[in-house]
Design goal:
Layout: H1 9-35, H2 39-56
Helix pairs in contact: 1-2
């Protein structure tokens, strides 16, 4: 049987590693944004949340 991986195993390991690291970063960034709101913090929180959603929904 000539089976090929859909994704490289190294890519999957990196992707799941990002998934584990992103959630604590999002929580920390959310607390920081609530306490000291700046435009950079809001944009960073949005980008982190968008990246996490993209990983969870397999868009990446």
């Amino acid at each position: 049987m000539n089976f090929r991986w859909k994704y490289n195993p190294t890519f999957l390991r990196i992707k799941f590693g990002f998934k584990q690291v992103l959630l604590p970063l999002i929580v920390f960034q959310f607390i920081r944004t609530v306490l000291f709101p700046t435009s950079f913090d809001v944009i960073l929180l949005g980008l982190l949340a968008l990246l996490y959603v993209a990983i969870v929904l397999d868009w990446l």
